[in-house]
Write a structure and sequence with these properties.
about 45% strand; single chain; globular; 8-stranded antiparallel beta barrel; 10 strands; alpha+beta
Length: about 150
Amino acid sequence: MKKLPLLFLSLISLYLFSCNQGSGSKTTVKSTDTVFKLSCYRAIDGEDTAFLQLKDFKKRTEGKLLFKFFKKDKNDGDIKGTYKGDTLFVNYGYHVGQETNWHINPVALLKKDGKLVMGVGKIGYLLGIPYFDKKVPIDFEQGRFTFEPVECSK
């Protein structure tokens, strides 16, 4: 019976010691995950304008894409993807105008002469998620938007 309070005290001490070990520790993030190159682009097609901001990390790219269509609602959202050779493949998650519904589309951008040319491809669906059909090549000649580098606004 005399050992029970000692055992109880030992368990409480062990618990308090282990709880204090985590406080003050910091989560380290690999430098490759936080270092990125920021690039901004603008494309104009008639009275429609598109803006693209890219953050290129070591193995992935993310950013913002905005389409302002003349006399229509804007499409505004985020992109995430990777380069395959000289082509950037991203998923574009966006809202149309003031809608709360999210839409998603694949986007392919070919790096050519310092510009990014948006391609047109056949879209397939898998479980409701759109993707480029790999059996049909993406056509970068028919794309509406060619993004040219611009100064990033702050």
